[in-house]
């Protein structure tokens, strides 16, 4: 790839007169030696899997093997429809869809890791709800996935995307940044605005620990995906309104690396601390062990 | 750059719940199956670190078994793979290992081939987002991700072997993206791993096998999804 940082990405976009998604497609094709059509087709298939996962999570039983989670997406959807939700509207929809995909994941269904399985709900939640709302074509969404991928590529190589390495900020945080930046571009924002959205979003997740109860990708991972989708929408709105990330986004990514590296091991996906070691968390873990 | 392309970020298509514990584990199992070059009749699986602590909840055992059946990360049969492995006549056992290990998510596999009885010991690590590295094959240190078409060449270590291998590559117009060599001792057995830009053709493999110092040539390529595998024989 011809860029290693978000600012280099923005400069390249300007030089070539193209958006982040189009540029990433070109770069990807150059890297793999496959045609742009082939690369686009692969991403298109991935978008199909995301749609399928949203549909499954909204309609089927998603109770996980542990029995700890499932069906929250459908609870949120029926509450959205029947009551007067605090959030409501497009944000409520994005939240329900993000929960849906995350629940499909927890119940061993098919999903796309974006960038990980623990954070797989956020991008589909944001993308599908916005597609329905704005009437966008599938191909437009697929170009948005390339934009999200470009942002994730920079985060992953300059910091991290896995909870075991950098805490949940690396997992859910990266996904929120990717979704926020991509959505900003899809809504007609410039590459510079999209990159501000990434910084704005990431700043809001710095320090988030990875503390899965029983070590499973269920509690609190699933609800964090729901919250994450809403945060991504908010970050995109701020960026589109002209709000800037005063600390440049590349510097925020470095801060994430610093914070994650300083995080004790018990807060990095080991289930040794945080919510996993609360009295209830410990009891759940004990019950799960005795079930085996 | 640890992550090389857009699909190491968006992707893989996979069966949940964990990209490290499930998709990564499936890829390690599949890589081992491909290095063995035949289905396994026995598989001894040892988990270390976080893999050992949570493998049952994450279905890491099922993912490894599915990988050993050559299933891709998004194969819908993965949740039932332990039963499918038993039906296929694979004896598979799971344990937790102690001692030093190279990464929080490490697994060691000991396989016995169903057809030839060949044994293979392989260590893999899952580095996040479904991305993996194979770090040890039969005591040889390697670094193999499976994301590029990869050729493994067991050969004797003597002067000019590598030159003859790269010459075959040059003549066949195959570009090498990454290369590593490890040997047991001077003039002893060696393993060379080549990551290529293009998939190796039968012709290339034939020419490599014809080299006098070469004992065996294996191919690892983990890029196919279950959808692309459809219609092919991917059962053991």
Automatic annotation (TrEMBL), chain A:
Q: Which reaction does it catalyse?
A: L-serine = pyruvate + NH4(+)
Q: Which residues form the Serine dehydratase-like alpha subunit domain?
A: 16-276
User: Per its UniProt record, what Pfam families does this chain match?
Assistant: SDH_alpha
State the Gene Ontology terms under molecular function. 4 iron, 4 sulfur cluster binding; L-serine ammonia-lyase activity; metal ion binding
The domain of life is Bacteria
Q: In which pathway does it act?
A: Carbohydrate biosynthesis; gluconeogenesis
User: Which InterPro entries does the record cross-reference, listed alphabetically?
Assistant: Fe-S_L-Ser, Ser_deHydtase-like_asu, Ser_deHydtase_asu
Set out the biological process GO terms recorded for this chain's protein: gluconeogenesis
Q: Which cofactor does it need?
A: [4Fe-4S] cluster
EC no. given is: 4.3.1.17
Keyword Lyase appears in the UniProt entry:
yes
Q: Where is the signal peptide?
A: none
**This protein's UniProt keywords:** 4Fe-4S, Gluconeogenesis, Iron, Iron-sulfur, Lyase, Metal-binding
Q: Which family does it belong to?
A: Belongs to the iron-sulfur dependent L-serine dehydratase family.
Q: What is this protein called?
A: L-serine dehydratase
UniProtKB/TrEMBL annotation, chain B:
**Sorted alphabetically, which InterPro entries does this protein's record hold?**
ACT-like_dom_sf, ACT_dom, ASB_dom_sf, Fe-S_L-Ser, Fe-S_L-Ser_bsu, Ser_deHydtase_bsu
Q: Does the keyword Metal-binding apply?
A: yes
Molecular-function GO terms, alphabetical: 4 iron, 4 sulfur cluster binding; L-serine ammonia-lyase activity; metal ion binding
Its needed co-factors are: [4Fe-4S] cluster
Every copy of the ACT domain together lies at: 150-222
Provide the alphabetized UniProt keywords.
4Fe-4S, Gluconeogenesis, Iron, Iron-sulfur, Lyase, Metal-binding
Is Acetylation set as a keyword in this record? Answer: no
Give the metabolic or biological pathway. Carbohydrate biosynthesis; gluconeogenesis
Q: Which family does it belong to?
A: Belongs to the iron-sulfur dependent L-serine dehydratase family.
Alphabetized NCBIfam families for the sequence: sda_beta
Q: How is this protein named in the record? A: L-serine deaminase
């Amino acid at each position: 790839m011809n860029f290693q940082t978000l600012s280099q990405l923005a400069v390249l976009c300007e030089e070539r007169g193209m958006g982040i998604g189009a540029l990433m497609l070109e770069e990807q094709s150059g890297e793999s030696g496959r045609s742009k059509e082939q690369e686009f087709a692969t991403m298109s298939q991935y978008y199909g899997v995301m749609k399928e996962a949203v549909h499954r999570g909204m309609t089927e039983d998603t109770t996980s093997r542990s029995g700890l989670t499932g069906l929250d997406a459908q609870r949120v959807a029926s509450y959205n429809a029947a009551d007067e939700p605090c959030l409501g509207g497009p944000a409520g929809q994005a939240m329900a869809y993000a929960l849906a995909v995350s629940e499909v994941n927890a119940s061993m269904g098919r999903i796309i890791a974006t960038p990980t399985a623990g954070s797989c709900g956020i991008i589909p939640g944001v993308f599908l709800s916005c597609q329905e709302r704005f009437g966008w074509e599938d191909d437009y969404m697929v170009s948005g996935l390339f934009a999200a991928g470009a942002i994730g590529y920079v985060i992953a190589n300059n910091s991290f995307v896995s909870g075991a390495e950098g805490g949940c900020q690396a997992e859910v945080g990266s996904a929120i940044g990717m979704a926020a930046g991509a959505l900003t571009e899809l809504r007609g924002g410039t590459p510079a605005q999209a990159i501000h959205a990434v910084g704005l979003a990431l700043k809001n997740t710095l320090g988030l620990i990875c503390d899965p109860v029983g070590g499973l990708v269920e509690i609190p991972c699933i609800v964090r995906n729901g919250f994450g989708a809403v945060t991504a929408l908010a970050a995109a709105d701020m960026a589109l309104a002209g709000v800037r990330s005063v600390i440049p986004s590349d510097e925020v990514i470095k801060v994430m690396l610093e914070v994650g590296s300083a995080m004790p091991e018990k807060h990095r996906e080991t289930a040794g601390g945080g919510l996993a070691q609360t009295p209830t968390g410990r009891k759940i873990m004990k019950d799960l062990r005795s079930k085996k | 750059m640890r992550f090389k392309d857009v699909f190491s970020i968006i992707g893989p298509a996979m069966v949940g719940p964990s990209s490290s514990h499930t998709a990564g584990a499936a890829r390690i199992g599949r890589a081992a199956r491909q290095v063995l070059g035949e289905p396994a009749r026995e598989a001894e699986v040892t988990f270390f670190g976080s893999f050992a602590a949570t493998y049952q909840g994450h279905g890491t055992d099922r993912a490894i078994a599915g990988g050993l059946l050559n299933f891709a990360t998004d194969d819908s049969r993965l949740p039932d793979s332990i039963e499918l492995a038993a039906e296929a006549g694979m004896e598979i056992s799971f344990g937790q290992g102690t001692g030093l290990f190279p990464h929080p998510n490490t697994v060691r596999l000991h396989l016995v081939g169903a057809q030839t009885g060949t044994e293979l010991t392989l260590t893999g690590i899952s580095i996040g987002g479904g991305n993996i590295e194979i770090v040890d094959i039969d005591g040889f240190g390697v670094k193999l991700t499976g994301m590029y078409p990869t050729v493994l060449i067991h050969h004797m270590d003597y002067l000019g072997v590598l030159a003859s291998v790269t010459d075959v590559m040059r003549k066949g117009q195959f570009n090498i993206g990454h290369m590593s060599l490890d040997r047991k001792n001077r003039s002893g057995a060696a393993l060379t791993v080549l990551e290529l830009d293009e998939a190796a053709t039968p012709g290339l493999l034939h020419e490599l096998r014809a080299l006098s110092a070469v004992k065996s040539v294996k191919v690892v390529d983990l890029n196919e999804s279950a959808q692309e595998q459809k219609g092919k024989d991917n059962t053991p």
